[in-house]
Specification:
This protein is α+β, with helices and mostly antiparallel strands. The protein is built from 16 helices and 22 strands. Helices cover about 30% and strands about 20% of the residues. The longest helix is centred in the C-terminal third of the chain and has 19 residues. It is globular, with a radius of gyration of 23 Å.
Length: about 525
């Protein structure tokens, strides 16, 4: 089978894991023949950018609509002026680009083949308020030695703790498959699953709660299936490890502006500040898109929106889909609010402080980033002023909480985590409150939308879209974007784009067998 994809037609690179798996591209034409079909992509986040890229590379005429002023969706950035007159780029904050994000990296390579804009961080430390700190810098990357090494090196696992654990209840962690993991564990809460295994409390907080809250959810609401899938992707199913890279400049400059230029060279009509009002069937399989005061007919449409935007558009498009499909979208929920506080301080933090620190037990503070350790713009500001740029994240905030009180509380927690910051003056601050991430709640999987829809010319993409592949977060967005484009390309006889994933089942045959025979949940 001929494999196409990427700028030069080669399959995207997978990383270091020899067991990573390729989803081969459907065979077909390198570019569509005859009059080029027209497609609209609604939403220019990671999913929409992936779909637009995949379609344009096969000769489809793509119009990319984005409500916001720039590309990137929830990873967009914007310029702002600080109290000292500095012009800086603000965003929704730190994101880890893990090395098992094969398809996201394949997308970024379109504009930066060597991924020179990504800088590795040396460690992923996790600190509990009790003083215990875990590190992944020296943990073996290949499962199952990753789990053995973590337990051996971690101060949160003692012999008594290990003896108290219930290994049979933990066996499903070693045999994660999609969609079977949802069939078995979507009715169970992540918190209940963790309690069933009997992890020591500190390890529970550090090794699991930190991860579950990265879904912006309280572990009591998060589906255990999503937690198990996450642990498979990042720890027990992949030998890429838990260390990650970060962009060396703000998102627009490092990622989206170069990719936008690549898309424009590929013929994509990028329309920012252009929300789509509705989508309507218009005879045959064609669809009409209402935007900017006009109605334009397209051969296909990709919806790559967040939960709120998708629900709003479907409600305004009554002729789209069928009753069951529309009800499923209407049932989608967003995760609780979260806060990103970025602080420009008048003095540096300690030299030993890591660029990123996950935290637990600090009364709502989930992580601390010292941006000037790795982001060029922040580093230049810090060197010029002698200060520091620090970012605080607080996830799953109570919706009734007083937001100013939460902002002050996170600042107090920073002073506890890094005491030297208590003497610093805040030159300026920006607080971003958002509540637009999907909630992967218990028993929520069956209602989540899929890439395909009741209309043959309409596909969907995004991190809320379910797929039978072990992907999550940014990688789910990129993967479903490519899948949405591939489904449309097959209609026009064009080749799809190959994709990579971490292994699609547990790596150890022995552990898989034990899980199938002995695993239980009670």
């Amino acid at each position: 089978m001929t494999r196409f994809g990427g700028r030069g037609g080669a399959a995207p690179r997978r990383g270091r894991d020899r067991k990573a798996q390729v989803l081969a591209a459907a065979p077909g034409l390198r570019r569509v023949h005859g009059p080029a079909p027209r497609a609209a992509v609604v939403g220019a986040g990671i999913a929409g950018l992936a779909a637009a890229t995949a379609l344009a590379e096969r000769g489809v005429r793509v119009t990319l609509h984005e409500r916001g002023a720039g590309l990137g969706g929830r990873l967009a950035g914007w310029r702002t002026e600080l109290a000292d007159g500095s012009r800086v780029t603000m965003s929704r904050g730190f994101h880890a680009f893990f090395r098992q994000y094969y398809n996201l990296r394949g997308l970024l390579r379109r504009a930066d083949p060597s991924l020179s804009v990504l800088r590795p961080l040396p460690d992923y430390p996790l600190r509990h308020r009790s003083g215990l700190t875990d590190s992944f810098a020296h943990v073996p990357r290949t499962p199952p030695w990753s789990a053995v090494g973590f337990a051996a090196l971690s101060p949160t696992f003692g012999w008594r703790d290990l003896a108290a654990m219930r290994p049979r209840a933990a066996l499903p962690l070693f045999d994660v498959r999609v969609p079977e993991v949802y069939e078995r564990f979507d009715t169970v809460g992540a918190q209940d699953f963790l309690d069933s295994v009997g992890f020591p409390p500190a390890a529970h907080h550090l090794a699991f709660e930190v991860f579950s809250r990265s879904f912006f959810s309280d572990p009591r609401e998060l589906s255990a299936a999503e937690l198990l899938l996450m642990f498979h992707i990042y720890f027990l199913g992949s030998s890429e490890g838990l260390l990650f890279d970060v962009p060396d400049e703000p998102f627009p400059q490092a990622l989206w502006e170069p990719l936008g230029r690549y898309l424009e060279r590929s013929g994509v009509d990028i329309r920012t500040g252009s929300p789509v009002d509705s989508v309507r069937p218009s005879g045959g399989t064609a669809l009409s898109v209402d935007a900017d005061g006009t109605s334009t007919e397209y051969d296909a449409v990709v919806l790559a929106l967040d939960v709120t935007g998708l629900k709003r558009l479907i409600e305004a498009s009554p002729g789209l889909g069928n009753e069951a499909w529309r009800a499923g979208i209407a049932a989608q929920r967003t995760a609780p609010p979260f806060l990103v506080s970025r602080l420009w301080l008048d003095r540096p933090v300690g030299r030993s402080r890591p660029g990123f620190l996950g935290t637990s037990g600090f009364d709502g503070l989930d992580n601390v980033s010292v941006l000037d350790r790795w982001e060029g713009e922040a580093g230049r500001w810090a060197r010029r002023t002698g200060g520091a740029v620090v970012e605080l994240h607080g996830y799953a905030v109570d919706e009734s909480a007083d937001r100013h009180a939460v902002e002050r509380k996170l600042l107090r927690q920073l002073h506890e985590v890094y005491p030297e910051t208590a003497e610093a003056r805040v030159v300026d601050a920006r607080h971003e409150w958002r509540a637009d991430c999907p909630l992967f709640s218990v028993q929520g999987y069956p209602a989540r939308p899929t890439v395909s829809t009741p209309h043959p010319a309409l596909t969907m993409a995004g991190d809320l879209v379910r797929t039978d592949l072990p992907v999550a977060l940014m990688e789910r967005a990129a993967t479903t974007g490519f899948l949405a484009a591939n489904a449309l390309l097959s209609r026009w006889g064009a080749a799809g784009h190959p994709l990579w994933t971490v292994p699609r089942r547990g790596r150890s045959r022995l552990l898989r067998g034990m899980s199938a025979r002995f695993a239980d949940f009670d």
